Amino acid sequence: MEYEKELEIGVRVVQLACCLCQKIQKGSFGPNPDLVVSKLDDSPVTVADWSVQAMISWILSESFGRENVSIVAEEDTQTLSDVKSTSLLASVVTTVNESLAMAPRFGLNGPTAPLEASEVLDAISRCNSSGGPVGRHWVLDPVDGTLGFVRGGQYAVALALIENGRVVVGVLGCPNYSSKRKLVNNSSAPKSDLWQEGCVMYTKRGSGQAWMQPLVCGDGTLEWPNSASVIQVSSIDNPVMATFCEPVEKANSNHSYSAGIAYSLGLRKQPLRVYSMVKYAAIARGDAEIYMKFAKAGYKEKIWDHAAGVVIVEEAGGVVTDAGGRPLDFSKGVYLEGLDRGIVACSGVNLHEKIIGAVYASWDSSHL
Ligand SMILES: [Mg+2]
């Protein structure tokens, strides 16, 4: 069965990563005075981002052989290696070792002895592949939507496998997206029984299906395949009934442009503004029908912000293209090169055609 082992390891390690993130938020690994720091480009990064990247990199290397594993991931060790970051690095090392100690519960092998700081840094910096059109590359956003993570909103752990430029496996861990409840505006962590509420969605290319598991962080062990349920996109194709989602931050997408598109199509509902790739998850699960993102001219979308979400939406029955109607190209390295204007994900072709048409009709006057 092609990609079966990759999918299984991917789901297990993303489950473990979601657990790591929840335990950081609960303070289970000790207080984190350095929870949020700024990268050189001023974007936020936390102990969780580096810890998840180190842990997943280490597990993938152990599972598939270090020499076989190429990983394209968001974080590097620049800020962490800074001499002023000693306590930050110590927090990351503790967190990575605490989470790897839980690995057997998730059906994964942990290390025989705790990792040294140098091994943790090494695991993070090994994720420096730039992908491309040939071979296999894992694509990782350790914490997608760091602002959502920090603010108690939605965030995701996103892992995908690209082979010869095509996304073939996608795993999306959504720790604050209840497996039982619909997504609503400003969705944040449910107050009670936090560890049972999140979900992990996954698929492999060509399966014609996507699945969802509840998180198993609270107790028990992760069985494979466990009681996963099949997820499907919504069958609503009338814009009047459709829900559309978009990024929370205006800096990431032009809200007034998408509002214009929504108006011209007769969409009645207010947009669902959600941090992170949980927007793709909402389309795949049928909680929303449309996801639109129109970044500023010149902004280059990174593959780790889309790969896992795109394949899950597609296998769940949806459509994802750029705003010109062409498929996203994951073969050009770290960025989605050649992306036309924006990204449109829909539950079906009917809504998708209408949106692409509305973009063509309105673009010249949009001044984006
Ligand atoms: Mg990130």
UniProtKB/TrEMBL annotation:
Reaction(s) catalysed by this chain's protein: 3'-phosphoadenylyl sulfate + H2O = adenosine 5'-phosphosulfate + phosphate; adenosine 3',5'-bisphosphate + H2O = AMP + phosphate
Database matches in CDD domains: PAP_phosphatase
Q: What is its EC number?
A: 3.1.3.7
Per UniProt, where does Mg(2+) bind? E74, D141, D144, D305
Presence of the UniProt keyword Magnesium in the record: yes
Q: Which GO terms describe its molecular function?
A: 3'(2'),5'-bisphosphate nucleotidase activity; metal ion binding
Protein function: Converts adenosine 3'-phosphate 5'-phosphosulfate (PAPS) to adenosine 5'-phosphosulfate (APS) and 3'(2')-phosphoadenosine 5'-phosphate (PAP) to AMP.
| Similarity section | Belongs to the inositol monophosphatase superfamily.
**Protein name per Swiss-Prot or TrEMBL:** 3'(2'),5'-bisphosphate nucleotidase
